[in-house]
Write a structure and sequence with these properties.
Layout lengths: L1 E6 L5 H13 L5 E6 L3 H9 L8 H7 L9 E4 L17 E7 L1 H9 L5 H11 L3 E6 L6 H12 L3 E2 L13 H14 L23
Helix pairs in contact: 1-7, 4-6
Bound molecules: flavin mononucleotide.
The site of flavin mononucleotide has 15 residues, from helix 2 and helix 4.
């Protein structure tokens, strides 16, 4: 399976990082076309203390703990409209934008995108492929909500960065991964099943 993953400048670079790690660990993804918006290095520095400024594929491989020679990640520049995800004739399963800023939500919803993330999302929708958007903002204005509704009506799957607590997370990592598992579920990709609700968690059933 080939996928495109975009990381934008919303809070929660960790969601993007863990999604990439879990996609790789699933063993089912051959190629990840990775695109990062221009604000990501700033957010990654603030939130993770990671330097992604001027990152190339080698730097991304290092960040993800991959061998320098690994080719699973194809890292595309934001202004490269000739990149593979820019064309509908490049066959892939879909695209994940995690986390997704309200700026990117608005650009895609308006159809007037200006960078490769917007273009790739536009292409994913027009080709009827799966577009999973993980928005992060709070509170949400009417403009944000209307843009998200527009994207949902156009076929995007809106999966807010709002992790659940029913699996009794013990760490920030547990919370983050819980959300990322739900992202993988959208593509039927395998992951740890430990956060799947079985119906047994709330105690005995009516039969005792
Ligand atoms: C540390 C930091 C956190 C941010 N958090 C959010 C956020 O949670 N949601 C959001 O919509 N924008 C957030 N922003 C603002 C976006 O980065 C900004 O609107 C930017 O223009 C988005 O561009 P992009 O969509 O191309 O990444 C944050 C910015 C910084 C520096």
């Amino acid at each position: 399976m080939d996928l495109t993953v975009a990381i934008t400048g919303a809070s929660g670079t960790i969601y993007g990082y863990r999604t990439l790690k879990l996609l790789i660990e699933s063993g089912k993804v051959e190629t990840i076309n990775l695109i990062m918006s221009g604000v990501v290095p700033t957010v990654a520095q603030v939130e993770l203390g990671v330097n992604l400024k001027n990152a190339d594929r080698a730097a991304i491989n290092k960040w993800l703990g991959l061998e320098p020679s690994s080719k699973i990640i194809r890292f595309w520049r934001l202004d490269n409209f000739a990149a593979r995800p820019s064309s509908g004739s490049y066959k892939q399963a879909g695209m994940i934008i995690v986390p997704c800023s309200m700026g990117t939500v608005g650009a895609i919803a308006s159809g007037a995108g200006t960078n490769l993330i917007h273009r790739a999302a536009d292409v994913t929708l027009k080709e009827g492929r799966k577009l999973v958007i993980v928005p992060r903002e709070t509170p949400l204005s009417t403009i944000h909500l209307e843009n998200l509704l527009r994207l949902s009506n156009a076929g995007a799957r809106i999966l807010p960065a709002a992790p659940g607590f029913y699996h009794r997370p013990q760490s920030v990592e547990d919370l983050v991964d819980h959300l990322c598992y739900r992202i993988l579920d959208q593509f039927d990709l395998p992951h740890s099943k430990k956060t799947q609700w079985t119906g047994e968690e709330a105690g005995e059933d009516e039969d005792g």
